[in-house]
Write a structure and sequence with these properties.
The chain is of the alpha+beta class and 191 residues long. It has a single domain, classed as Nuclear Transport Factor 2, Chain: A (Roll). Helices cover 33% and strands 38% of the residues. It has seven helices and seven strands. Strands 1, 2, 3, 4, 5, 6 and 7 form a seven-stranded mixed β-sheet that branches. A hairpin with a 2-residue loop joins strand 1 and strand 2.
């Protein structure tokens, strides 16, 4: 297999490796990131290693999540690459009897160091989302829902009510934040 195809496959494996989070395979999840890797998503911003610790706490809570991850679109520049990957986040808090389904895109800066591709920075762009009601419709707190952009309001609501608050606005499809994120990613790629 030529180097280009090997590199593409290695990066695709990083993206689908997010399944380790859903399976509570914490060491494998940590291994997706370089030691200095960071992540910025709805409920967490900081070092990837701290994210894994937070995910362990989330895994022990009433909140359950599942991530469906597609194949990435990858742009290479030497030992760096940008991977943009469609994903669905499906979440549920059985105690609250409410869930959500959110379509997003992971926007990853990945780098090959010592011959190994790993994630340097993971961010997300939220495209659309909705609530789910596994046992029938329940009343929701409209004031909390309205604090967030509609593209991820259902997810943010569920996170907030489960003890994992969303503290700032994140990129949504076509937003200025998405453009800023992608401009910064391209600048990193070319540096």
């Amino acid at each position: 297999m030529d180097t280009y195809l090997q590199d593409r496959q290695s990066i695709a494996d990083l993206m689908t490796g997010w399944m380790h989070r859903d399976l509570a395979e914490w060491d494998q999840l940590r291994a997706l990131f370089h030691a200095d890797g960071v992540i910025e998503i709805t409920w967490f911003e900081g070092r990837a290693s701290d994210f894994v610790d937070g995910s362990m706490r989330m895994g022990a809570s009433d909140l359950r999540t599942k991530h469906l991850v597609a194949a990435p679109v990858v742009t290479f520049h030497g030992s760096k690459a940008i991977a943009e990957t469609n994903a669905m986040v499906i979440a549920e808090n059985a105690k609250l009897q409410v869930g959500c389904s959110v379509h997003c895109r992971f926007y990853d800066e990945v780098e090959k160091r010592a011959g190994v591709w790993k994630i340097v920075k993971r961010q997300a762009v939220y495209d659309m989302g909705s609530f789910t009601f596994p046992l029938g419709i329940v009343d929701l707190d409209a004031e909390t829902i309205q604090k967030y952009p509609s593209e991820y309001a259902a997810l943010a609501y569920l996170l907030d009510k489960s003890g994992f608050p969303v503290r700032r606005v994140f990129a949504t499809k076509g937003s200025a934040l998405e453009k800023t994120m992608k401009d910064a990613g391209q600048a990193w790629l070319r540096s």
